[in-house]
Specification:
binds zinc ion; alpha+beta; 1 helix; 4-stranded mixed sheet
Length: 70
């Protein structure tokens, strides 16, 4: 299980990046939102997409490469 966060500021395409708490790229403490603790990034992205169905979430290439779609 890992804790997942997303960055509150999307990138230039409007995509929000999801990280685990131990990502080495991570994350300004004040610029991130806690999603929850999940088995994997697929579960984390599924959960946060239910909350924000009009946002696109993408896994970080470093810590969530299996969810890095964009
Ligand atoms: Zn990351």
């Amino acid at each position: 299980m890992s804790a997942f966060y997303y960055l509150q500021n999307p990138d230039h395409k409007g995509i929000f990046t999801v990280h685990t708490e131990d990502c080495r790229i991570i994350l300004p403490v004040h610029g991130r939102t806690y999603i929850g603790t999940f088995e994997n990034c697929q579960e984390a992205i599924k959960s946060v997409t239910l909350l924000f169905p009009y946002r696109i979430f993408n896994g970080c290439v470093e810590c969530c490469p299996e969810c890095h779609y964009w």
